[in-house]
């Protein structure tokens, strides 16, 4: 089974809404500065916290994990006019740290996938398969011996 896991940084899926909102406000700020000639600013306030999330069965805690709580406010200001956007993220993720101390987020245990998540995973799998096929075709075009991907496949994943 595929397990989502990525280093937590501004490029993480957790911050996709933040990046979209930032881009929209930046675009609007640049357009307004261009049309009015007024200087503007875009302020980011990021709040970080953690909480303990749990799954229960028959009243007993079955699984427990640390969940990141990330919330932000983006403020766009041009002279006297101000516009704020507030959002949050982190629910449904488990927070861990790699051997170098960098934060890692992954799906929380027993996270229920939305149809969007399942579609996204299918697309990622299809892209990975296409990339493997292209690599095999490239290797074969250079005269390299290419193993049969079906016959030579061994599943090393843990169940």
Continuous helix count: 2
- Strand order of the biggest β-sheet: 1-6-5
Total beta strand runs: 6
Task: Determine the mean pLDDT.
Answer: 78
Helix percent reads: 25-40%
Shape: flat
Low-confidence stretches: 149-155
Q: Please, what is the oligomeric state?
A: single chain
Relative strand content: 35-45%
Order of helices and strands: EHEEEEEH
The rounded Rg comes to 22 Å
Description of the molecule:
This protein has 159 residues and is α+β, with helices and mostly antiparallel strands. It has two domains: 5-110, no CATH class; 113-146. 30% of the residues lie in helices and 37% in strands. The protein contains two helices and six strands. The strands form two sheets. A three-stranded antiparallel sheet has the order 1-6-5, with no helix packed on it. It has a three-stranded antiparallel sheet with strand order 2-3-4, with helices on one face. Strand 2 and strand 3 form a beta hairpin.
